[in-house]
């Protein structure tokens, strides 16, 4: 069984919620980034989203944009990132999802990518700008290599559309909490309010799928993570981890988030 | 050959919709609204009335006799999009999209801009229809297209300077997409070229096809036959797609798209996505792209802000593969020479973008011979470029 599915089954059996962490691979360079990821994994991440930097990250806010810029400036590329994943896999059993924009994967070649990713111990792919309608070309080789295609659902996705997309989804559903880019924080709606508004959408999503639901975008501390974990099966934190890593507070934040999520 | 995309917006292997899920419902809604609108006689009448009475269409087709003589060959006709209100072809599209936005109940327009022509055209349409407008523009373009920035501000648009990347059109478009995700309920994103996710490439071409429809009737009236060649510059490719659209079925008419070669293709500092790029995915569609081996998008270079973009509309990629359109490129220096030629010989200041098409006509004219006719799409006027041209000439003057 795929490590992602297995992890969620185990957690569900234990009645626990999951903490999913995103970090941009290669930020600010591969060596530092690998050290940070190890730190995050050792301090309580249940799943890792390994971000592939892209020159034009149209779905990301300032934190992840800057992380990508630093990673690219240091020369990080997909081949090196997969090699890093393989090293991480030797030390950790944690599920790893490659999180990317379509173009770096397309350029690498979808078939070759799936083969190399599987070999490196990657368990699934999440491609931000590859909606379901364009995904057949990638899903075919993914299926052959038993990689899970993680489907994003947005607050703008209608229940009918969600049902259609999720019929083909696997592993878990990534529910985007806000209409906006990653790390986005609207001044008008405080984050906890937003999570509360999301409750309705998550409940509705439950009627469309039996897959575990992970909620993310805009969650930056333990209190918000706790609130989100009350409604979802997992909480995704990205920008806040990227910032914490820069300030040398990564382990601390992961522990805070893990305690908050696992305490639900 | 088929020139409409498939149901999901693919032109052969190109096009499609590569956007975050958050935007998918908005694009589907837009596509449905657009399909209904173009079939609605009321919408079409309103669109064409505004084009006639406000934009000043039809734009003339002008036989440039002194230029013809100087270039020593084919008779050169200029499609005068420079005479449109706001000075370029961009207004045809923004009127169409703004009317559609109003039909859809959106109150706010948003646009990216390079040369500022599309920004001005969007701000103008917003003023005309009483809508809010926000324009995303790279810092570098704000510097080199200062008069247009001023115009947008007078028109009441908010200018959002973009600092990331090379601070040009590509980065402005990325930032516009980010902003759209956050305001997708009340905001209509007016894309300025035949680029972006489906339905933009075919929608923008449809709104720009008025250029081709007029040109075809005008050239038949003036010469009694179709032209031998139609030349247009290609940034994203909207003025080219607009004028080509009326001649696609007539294979006797050679269609030529001109990309920006910047300092020269071999220097790597250019914007020739078709000529020197490879297939990739950027800003919502699959097309030719300037990128490195890792799929990171590379910076384009052109003296002309409107051509300074590392991608190209997906239908152009398809036309290139199927050889319906020939693509070539013109350097900064050649374009500036053509700017001087038209200004001195005809008293018309062309936009630097359009100067690329003129420079290509210069190369082709003699070979085609005096009995041939070439139509050049003069996509815009050069007033916006004057400061930029002065500083470029100072910097690159040969000693
Ligand atoms: C006068 C003019 N021509 C051409 C272009 C290039 O755009 P497109 O290739 O979409 O016609 C621009 C873009 O700003 C422009 O202002």
What does this structure look like?
The complex is a heterodimer of chains A (264) and B (399). Chain A has 264 residues and is of the alpha/beta class. Chain A has a single domain (3-262), classed as Alpha-Beta Barrel (TIM Barrel), CATH 3.20.20. Chain A is 50% helix and 14% strand. Chain A contains twelve helices and nine strands. In chain A, helix 9 (191-206) runs parallel beside helix 10, helix 10 (222-231) runs parallel beside helix 12 and helix 11 runs antiparallel to helix 12. Chain A is globular and about 45 Å long. In chain B, helix 2 (41-55) packs across helix 4 (90-103). The longest helix of chain B has 24 residues, at 200-223. Chain B is globular and about 55 Å long. At the A-B interface, helix 5 of A face strand 2, helix 1, helix 8, strand 11 and strand 12 of B. The site of pyridoxal-5'-phosphate has 22 residues of chain B, from helix 5, helix 10 and helix 14. Pyridoxal-5'-phosphate binds at residues 88, 90, 114-115, 117-118, 193, 233-240, 306-307, 351, 353-354, 379-380 of chain B.
Name the features.
heterodimer, A: 264 residues, alpha/beta, TIM Barrel, 9-stranded parallel sheet, 12 helices, 14% strand, B: 399 residues, 4-stranded antiparallel sheet, 15 helices, globular, binds pyridoxal-5'-phosphate
List the helices and strands and how they pair.
The complex is a heterodimer of chains A (264) and B (399).
Chain A: H1 3-14, E1 18-24, H2 30-42, E2 47-51, H3 62-73, H4 78-91, E3 96-100, H5 102-108, H6 110-119, E4 124-127, H7 136-144, E5 148-149, E6 151-153, H8 159-166, E7 173-176, H9 191-206, E8 213-216, H10 222-231, E9 234-237, H11 239-246, H12 250-262
Parallel strand pairs in A: 1-2, 1-9, 2-3, 3-4, 4-5, 6-7, 7-8, 8-9
Chain B: E1 10-11, E2 14-18, H1 24-39, H2 41-55, E3 61-63, H3 65-71, E4 75-80, H4 90-103, E5 108-113, H5 117-129, E6 132-138, H6 139-144, H7 146-154, E7 158-162, H8 169-182, E8 187-190, H9 200-223, E9 229-233, H10 238-244, E10 254-262, H11 273-276, E11 278-282, E12 284-289, H12 314-321, E13 325-331, H13 332-346, H14 352-368, E14 373-378, H15 386-395
Parallel strand pairs in B: 4-14, 5-6, 5-8, 6-7, 9-10, 9-14, 10-13
Antiparallel strand pairs in B: 1-2, 2-12, 3-4, 11-12
Helix pairs in contact in B: 2-4, 3-13, 4-5, 4-9, 5-7, 9-10, 13-14
């Amino acid at each position: 069984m795929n490590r992602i599915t297995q992890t969620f089954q185990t957690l569900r059996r234990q009645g626990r919620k999951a903490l999913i962490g995103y970090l941009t691979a290669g930020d600010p360079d591969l060596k530092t980034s690998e050290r940070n990821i190890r730190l995050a994994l050792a301090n309580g991440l249940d799943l890792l989203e390994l971000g592939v930097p892209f020159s034009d990250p149209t779905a990301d806010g300032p934190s992840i944009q800057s992380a990508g810029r630093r990673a690219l400036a240091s020369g990080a590329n997909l081949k090196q990132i997969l090699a890093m994943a393989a090293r991480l896999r030797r030390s950790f059993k944690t599920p790893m999802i490659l999180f990317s924009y379509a173009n770096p994967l397309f350029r690498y070649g979808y078939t070759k990518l799936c083969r190399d990713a599987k070999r490196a111990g990657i368990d699934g792919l999440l491609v931000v700008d590859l909606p379901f309608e364009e995904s057949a070309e990638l899903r075919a080789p993914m299926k052959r290599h038993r990689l899970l295609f993680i489907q994003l659902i947005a607050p703008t996705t209608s229940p009918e559309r969600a049902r259609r997309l999720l019929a083909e989804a696997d592993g878990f559903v990534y529910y985007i909490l806000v209409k906006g880019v990653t790390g986005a924080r609207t001044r008008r709606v405080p984050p906890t309010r937003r999570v509360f508004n999301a409750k309705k959408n998550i409940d509705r999503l439950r009627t469309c799928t039996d897959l575990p639901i992970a909620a993310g975008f805009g969650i930056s501390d333990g209190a918000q993570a706790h609130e989100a974990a009350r409604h979802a099966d997992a909480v995704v934190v990205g920008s806040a981890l990227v910032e914490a890593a820069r300030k040398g507070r990564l382990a601390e934040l992961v522990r805070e988030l893990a305690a908050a999520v696992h305490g639900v | 050959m088929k020139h409409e995309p498939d149901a999901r917006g693919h032109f052969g292997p190109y096009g499609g919709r590569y956007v975050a899920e958050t935007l998918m419902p908005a694009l589907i809604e837009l596509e449905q609204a657009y399909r209904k609108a173009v079939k609605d006689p009321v919408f079409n009448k309103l669109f064409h009335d505004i084009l006639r009475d406000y934009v000043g269409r039809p734009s003339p087709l002008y036989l440039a006799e002194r230029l013809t003589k100087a270039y020593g060959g084919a008779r050169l006709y200029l499609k005068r999009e420079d005479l449109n209100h706001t000075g370029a072809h961009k207004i045809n599209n923004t009127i169409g999209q703004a009317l559609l936005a109003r039909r859809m109940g959106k109150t706010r327009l948003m646009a990216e801009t390079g040369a500022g022509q599309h920004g001005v055209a969007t701000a103008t349409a917003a003023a005309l229809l009483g809508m809010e407008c926000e324009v995303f523009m790279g810092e570098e373009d704000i510097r080199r297209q200062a008069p247009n920035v001023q115009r947008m501000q007078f028109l009441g648009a908010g200018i959002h300077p973009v600092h990331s990347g090379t601070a040009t059109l590509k980065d402005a478009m990325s930032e516009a997409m980010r902003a759209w995700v956050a305001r997708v309920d009340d905001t209509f994103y007016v894309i300025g070229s035949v680029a972006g996710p489906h339905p933009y490439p075919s929608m923008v071409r449809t709104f720009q096809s008025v250029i081709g429809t007029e040109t075809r009737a005008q050239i038949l009236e003036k010469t009694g036959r179709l032209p031998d060649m139609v030349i247009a510059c290609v940034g994203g490719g909207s003025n080219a797609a607009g004028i080509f659209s009326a001649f696609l079925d007539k294979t006797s008419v050679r269609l030529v798209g001109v990309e920006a070669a910047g300092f020269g293709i071999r220097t790597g500092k250019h914007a020739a996505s078709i000529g020197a790029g490879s297939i990739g995915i950027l800003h919502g569609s699959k097309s030719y792209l300037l990128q490195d081996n890792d799929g990171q998008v590379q910076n384009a270079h052109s003296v002309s802000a409107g051509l300074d973009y590392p991608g190209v509309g997906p239908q152009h990629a398809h036309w290139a593969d199927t050889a319906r359109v020939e693509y070539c490129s013109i350097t900064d220096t050649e374009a500036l020479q053509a700017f001087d030629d038209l200004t001195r010989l005809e008293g018309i200041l062309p936009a630097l973008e359009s100067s690329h098409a003129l420079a290509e006509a210069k190369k082709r004219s003699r070979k085609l011979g005096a009995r041939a006719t070439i139509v050049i799409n003069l996509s815009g006027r050069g007033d916006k470029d004057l400061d930029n041209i002065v500083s470029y000439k100072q910097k690159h003057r040969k000693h």
